[in-house]
Automatic annotation (TrEMBL):
Residues where NAD(+) binds: G10, A11, G12, A13, W14, G15, A136, R251
Record keyword Nucleotidyltransferase present: no
Amino acids binding NADPH: W14, R34, K104, A136, R251, V275, E277
Domain Glycerol-3-phosphate dehydrogenase NAD-dependent N-terminal residues, every copy: 6-150
EC number per UniProt: 1.1.1.94
Keywords: Cytoplasm, Lipid biosynthesis, Lipid metabolism, NAD, NADP, Nucleotide-binding, Oxidoreductase, Phospholipid biosynthesis, Phospholipid metabolism
Gene encoding the protein: gpsA
Main location: cytoplasm
Entry's Gene Ontology BP terms: carbohydrate metabolic process; glycerol-3-phosphate biosynthetic process; glycerol-3-phosphate catabolic process; glycerophospholipid metabolic process; phospholipid biosynthetic process
Single GO MF descriptor: glycerol-3-phosphate dehydrogenase (NAD+) activity
Species of provenance: Teichococcus rhizosphaerae
Its biological purpose: Catalyzes the reduction of the glycolytic intermediate dihydroxyacetone phosphate (DHAP) to sn-glycerol 3-phosphate (G3P), the key precursor for phospholipid synthesis.
Protein name: Glycerol-3-phosphate dehydrogenase [NAD(P)+]
GO cellular component assignments: cytosol
């Protein structure tokens, strides 16, 4: 059986890029936007001017703000609203087909990974995650990229991969959805740290140290929550961490960079119409890690930086002053 009809819930940059990708792979796609005015504008212009300008929406994409129309006939749903808004968004979708969550984060309320949010709203729904080093604009442009589809019962996972993959968008299956979600959420937080050290002019050595110690933090939490080390070393872990800590196109990195330059958080956020998941995720990730008995000193430093309790040099001094120990 193939998944010919796909509903994409959330018309930000990534939802729009995934809708374009699914259409490119041959699916009939409905793209749900929560604002009817914005949905109408996208239908008229065949473009998401607010979140993904310059990428034409193929004819196979129908844009709607009506949940029932979005889900009509859909055999797969891609959930691509920000992690913090997924629970409230799901209230508008009384039934769902098997789903892949493409959001990356931990909720401030409940400290949930995205699949935990979904499981609370729709217990028993077959679900997995789609995650990897993927800037939306590059995927929309058809540039080469890879990601994992983690979780879902194996037969549905294969069908989802077949429905979404093209030669330029290579999808790997695996069954460690926990590891994939921890990697996707935590890389946002570590990328804020990487941006901050670069914005403060602390150098490439500092960034490389942060990325490496960052993956150690991610690994500790992933394993504590039941994930696997191979996942942490894979596309949804190290792969996404590398992209987000080095790509100036990352919202998390650029927010950290601006903080490192000494700009206030409120001012940086006020200039953005896009989500920077690491901001809400940092304290939630830290709390989740503490509840699991896992130390995440870089995530803790980012949370303190975001709270305004330290500037970047002080946060780095704190990290460097931790007791010396074996790697
Ligand atoms: N942009 C990327 O390159 C990319 C790639 C991979 C994963 N992601 C992840 O995808 C998720 C969505 O990010 P994005 O980049 O598509 O978004 P975006 O920044 O382009 O747009 C913001 C989105 O948030 C929605 N939103 C804002 N307030 C809301 C509310 N109160 N309730 C419901 N929705 C609300 C908007 O409608 C819009 O869809 C995030 O978890 C992000 O980490 C993004
Ligand atoms: O722009 P960012 O920092 O939200 O990162 C986008 C994607 O998650 C990269 O894989």
């Amino acid at each position: 059986m193939s998944m010919r009809r796909i509903a994409v819930i959330g018309a930000g940059a990534w939802g729009t890029a995934l809708a374009i990708q699914a259409a490119r792979a041959g699916a009939e796609v409905s793209l749900w936007a929560r604002d009817p005015g914005r949905a109408a504008a996208m239908r008229a212009a065949r473009e998401n001017a607010a979140h993904l300008p310059g990428h034409r929406l193929p004819d196979a994409i129908a844009v709607t703000a009506d949940p029932a129309a979005a889900l009509s006939g859909a055999e797969l749903a891609l959930l691509v609203v920000p992690a913090q808004h997924m629970a409230t968004t799901l209230e508008g979708f009384p039934r769902l087909p098997p789903a892949l969550v493409a959001a990356k984060g931990v909720t401030a309320r409940g400290l949930h990974l995205p699949l935990e949010t979904l499981a609370l709203a729709r217990p028993g729904l077959p679900a997995g995650v789609l995650s990897g080093p993927n800037f939306a604009a590059e995927v929309a442009a058809g540039l080469p990229a890879a990601a994992v589809v983690a979780g879902l019962p194996p037969e549905l996972r294969e069908q989802a991969i077949a429905a979404l993959a093209t030669p330029a968008f290579r999808l790997y299956g695996q069954d460690d959805a926990v590891g994939a979600q921890v990697g996707g959420a935590a890389k946002n937080v570590i990328a804020i740290a990487a941006g901050a050290v670069m914005g403060a002019g602390l150098g490439e050595n500092a960034r490389a140290a942060l990325v490496t110690r960052g993956i150690a933090e991610i690994g500790r939490l992933a394993l504590a929550l039941g994930g696997r080390a191979e996942t942490v070393a894979g596309l949804s872990g190290l792969g996404d961490l590398l992209l987000t800590c080095t790509g100036p196109g990352s919202r998390n990195f650029s927010l950290g960079f601006a903080l490192g330059q000494g700009r206030p958080l409120g001012e940086i956020l006020a200039e953005r119409n896009s989500v920077t998941e690491g901001v809400a995720t940092a304290p939630a990730l830290l709390a989740r890690a503490r509840a699991a008995g896992v130390e995440m000193p870089i995530a803790a430093a980012v949370a303190e930086l975001l709270e305004g309790r330290h500037d970047v040099p002080a946060a780095v001094r704190g990290l460097m002053a931790r007791p010396l120990r074996d790697e």
